Amino acid sequence: MSVDQIHLRLLRSLLLPLFILWCTTGAAHAAAEELPAQNVLVLHSYQKGFAWTDEQSAGMEERLKSASNLPVIYTEYMDWKRYPTQENLEHFYQTIKFKYQNVHIDTILTTDDAALSFALKYRHELLNDAPIIFSGINELGVAAIPNPHNITGVIEKIDPKPTIRMAMDINPSLKKVYIVYDNSESGLSTGQMVMDQIGAMKLGLELFPMNRLSMEQIQATASSLSPDSIVLMTTYFSDSTGRIVEFDRFAGELGKSSRVPVYHIYDFGLNHGAFGGSLISGRIQGQTAADLAQRILQGEQAGKIPVVTDSNVRKVFDYNELQRFNIPQDKLPEGSEVINKPFSFYQTYKVLVLSIVAAFAVLVAFILVLLFYVQLVRRIRSSLEKSNERFSLATYGSDAVIWDVDMSTMIYYFSDSWYELLGYARDEINESRGGWRDILHPEDAEQENRLRIQHLEGRSSYYYAEYRMRSKAGEYKWFQARGKVLRNASGGYIRFAGSMVDVTDRKGYESKLQISYQELESTYEELTALQDELLEQYNKVVENQALLQTSEERYRLLAYNDVLSGLPNRLSLSEELKAFIEDPSSGHAALFFLDIDNFKYINDTMGHTFGDELLVKVGERLLSHSDGRSKHFRFGGDEFVILFKNVEGADEVIRYADALVQGFREPFQLHASVVHISTSIGIAQYPENGLNAEELLKNADIAMYKAKEAGKGIYVIYGHEMQQYFDKRMVIENHLRSAISNNELSLHYQPLLDMGSGEVWGFEALIRWNNPVLGFVSPLSFIRVAEDCRLIVPIGEWVLRSACRFIKDLQNQGYEGYHISVNISVIQLMLEDFTEMVLTVLQDTGLAPEYLELEITESIFMESFESISSKLEALKKRGIGIALDDFGTGYSSLSYLKQLPITTLKIDKSFIDSIDTPNSMSLARSIVTIGHDMGLNVTAEGVETPEQLAFLKRTSCDKIQGYYISRPIPEKEVAGWVAGRRAG
């Protein structure tokens, strides 16, 4: 057979499979285009950027976007972790209703409990009653689904037992487990579930829940643990004081401060202080949920698809944490994954390096062989026909597979050895018509096709590829394929043929000599091309290193700039200030600390997206006031900082501050809304008000705080008297933190007299503080400080518990029927568990609810009327009295008053003091009448004279209190006062 004939047959063999492939691909594209797009709605419970949610979202999108019929993916975030309010839910409901009123949703994917609850409640109304696939839900959450119709999903099975076993394998002396979780509903259920499962293992471990500790107390405890302990981190987003905690930051700080390993339950703790463990993977859950969604989109019914209960976990440890605690990797459980290993060129590219060395060795061997064969070329030419026959016979007896494609018919041919190696019978997989592509490994198919087309188009001198093929037994074998296309005089394809070698055990190198037998001269060129290819691979490694360096520069840019506004961030400000101060040539400067007034109200009423857009507009307006000497930073939240350099005098600072204040008086146009805002500005000057960045920032912040107190929308320049005021507040706060533990707080009780019977109705509890250093501190001084730093939460609970215990003890002494009245702070009322806390105190002290009265000021209701009213209404239904204190000094109207869940009006002392004037007397009488008309009891405060008492009797006031009856009485003297009054 001549060379031209061989080329013609190869071209025909190649054209036929290419034509079939083109037809098949075109038909597949046509079929895909005919299918209508399906819509998938993904509802996330939490916010974008929250690691757990992002991992689930990435897993879902990864699988959905790989579907053959790509669906349209809609994604919504409820932001429920940061804003678990009814207002947020209503806003989200309106958003979904508006956006999807004309969109047919084919299936709904939800992550975590809040999104599932929303979908169950509104899918019939808003979302075409689409099937639901949930993820991030534990067994209790699934069991609580009221109607599991048309629902399936992935159960988030929380199982700490594998992690505990790993910890005991690593540290056999383990005795104590400190479990971190918060006091939210999901946090408490997760923490109890974890402790129950560890306890069920019966390993004799001591368990220490840490939900009653503040963030600082948890870190302090972890920093002093003994070596026989570990910390187990579950979910944690607020501490015991109700303070919101960023999980990543807190987990990282806890990991740094802990003396023992910090194991985690979820893999989003990795790179944030997590030592490791058997970690639940949000990405795997998202992938599994997306697989279920694809089945539903293909026609299966959600209700008939079983809920996935397999545990989606990774056994993973952090290399840096292993090094920190001197734990060798051979102590880790088998199959463990180790992240953050240091980069090693040899380990990373070991296969490539060894392959290069082996290739060069083979290259040398090939060259030696070629030198030998060149001497034999003339003798080989004379016996070419005989050699061809010998080659045909050798083909059948060798390990190599000969393949051939007739390009005119696209019919493939494989030698018998191919069937022997893979175990298939001839035509079993329709291989002659291209069916062999179906057994290619999915990861290799695209690469093989690209190399084949590259050679057929003339962009490579020969076809060379390595890929895996699935045998009949199900295992994959590696093949090294080589080939060349034969063309006719006009360049058209005749035949495409070559060979493939089973290189699974790397035993096929000898067959390369047989493959290159006919064209020894071209073999040398091919070897040279192979060397060039290896050099190209090396150059790619160098190029990848350059790309890595570019990526690091990009991450550095992100680290120093705020993502939302594009302004430099807090880290950039710190380095800018440090460089400015350390530069000897730097002159005077001023630091402006800006805080947007009432921004929280804007966020709550207009939505966080609106708030984010407003922050961007604020940054743009600040930049518009730049004169080249000022640099602007977003410090965080609604706070901005301006560094004003080369200041020539105080007048220049004042002019710039006036321009800033005036600039914010112009309204902001956001879409169809016009927003009027103001900003409070604190100014600290360098070097007069600080010689380092921390001191300048602190003093500017203090000045801004004074601007807030002075009425907002103004600027204040820092003065030393502000530091004295701030220092005094800090001294009070520091001493107040230990007031309860040091037994420095006490209660005095002022009697309340029933005007009808003349008997004592009960007492109002009034707090007193006697500090060994500060002496007696007025409540007017320390209550405000306690509210600002949220110490009012534990102090308020202590007051309520002490007062209820006192009145119950007094009842047990024979003074039955006495009531107790306790003042409540707005900070306490804003806590989610306020109602449960009050009922728990009553249960613990044994006091019946009808003997407790809670006093609330009018201003408290103005903070958040709906949420506070619902809590007080629940307590009122239990029989607890609700008194509106200082009535007449606030903002209440009669229509507003009717909506309040109160039982008593307390007339402010200012009306009683001026009762001898006709106007005040008439007003006080009207208040009593209004209260009675509304079915309320009326109590008068500050009664100090017989005339005041006589007037209040005439107006039928229900109860009175004041110095005319008694001053506030210390707790130890109350029983004696009551006994003396009865005796009198």
UniProtKB/TrEMBL annotation:
<dbReference type="Pfam" id="PF04392">
    <property type="entry name" value="ABC_sub_bind"/>
</dbReference>
<dbReference type="InterPro" id="IPR029787">
    <property type="entry name" value="Nucleotide_cyclase"/>
</dbReference>
<dbReference type="Pfam" id="PF00990">
    <property type="entry name" value="GGDEF"/>
</dbReference>
<keyword id="KW-0732">Signal</keyword>
<dbReference type="InterPro" id="IPR013655">
    <property type="entry name" value="PAS_fold_3"/>
</dbReference>
<keyword id="KW-0472">Membrane</keyword>
<keyword id="KW-0812">Transmembrane</keyword>
<dbReference type="InterPro" id="IPR000700">
    <property type="entry name" value="PAS-assoc_C"/>
</dbReference>
<feature type="transmembrane region" description="Helical">
    <location>
        <begin position="351"/>
        <end position="374"/>
    </location>
</feature>
<dbReference type="InterPro" id="IPR035919">
    <property type="entry name" value="EAL_sf"/>
</dbReference>
<feature type="coiled-coil region">
    <location>
        <begin position="510"/>
        <end position="544"/>
    </location>
</feature>
<dbReference type="InterPro" id="IPR035965">
    <property type="entry name" value="PAS-like_dom_sf"/>
</dbReference>
<feature type="domain" description="EAL">
    <location>
        <begin position="729"/>
        <end position="982"/>
    </location>
</feature>
<dbReference type="InterPro" id="IPR043128">
    <property type="entry name" value="Rev_trsase/Diguanyl_cyclase"/>
</dbReference>
<feature type="signal peptide">
    <location>
        <begin position="1"/>
        <end position="30"/>
    </location>
</feature>
<dbReference type="InterPro" id="IPR000160">
    <property type="entry name" value="GGDEF_dom"/>
</dbReference>
<dbReference type="Pfam" id="PF00563">
    <property type="entry name" value="EAL"/>
</dbReference>
<dbReference type="InterPro" id="IPR052155">
    <property type="entry name" value="Biofilm_reg_signaling"/>
</dbReference>
<dbReference type="InterPro" id="IPR000014">
    <property type="entry name" value="PAS"/>
</dbReference>
<protein>
    <submittedName>
        <fullName>EAL domain-containing protein</fullName>
    </submittedName>
</protein>
<dbReference type="InterPro" id="IPR001633">
    <property type="entry name" value="EAL_dom"/>
</dbReference>
<feature type="domain" description="GGDEF">
    <location>
        <begin position="587"/>
        <end position="720"/>
    </location>
</feature>
<dbReference type="InterPro" id="IPR007487">
    <property type="entry name" value="ABC_transpt-TYRBP-like"/>
</dbReference>
<dbReference type="Pfam" id="PF08447">
    <property type="entry name" value="PAS_3"/>
</dbReference>
<feature type="domain" description="PAC">
    <location>
        <begin position="463"/>
        <end position="515"/>
    </location>
</feature>
<feature type="domain" description="PAS">
    <location>
        <begin position="387"/>
        <end position="459"/>
    </location>
</feature>
<keyword id="KW-1133">Transmembrane helix</keyword>
<dbReference type="InterPro" id="IPR001610">
    <property type="entry name" value="PAC"/>
</dbReference>
<keyword id="KW-0175">Coiled coil</keyword>
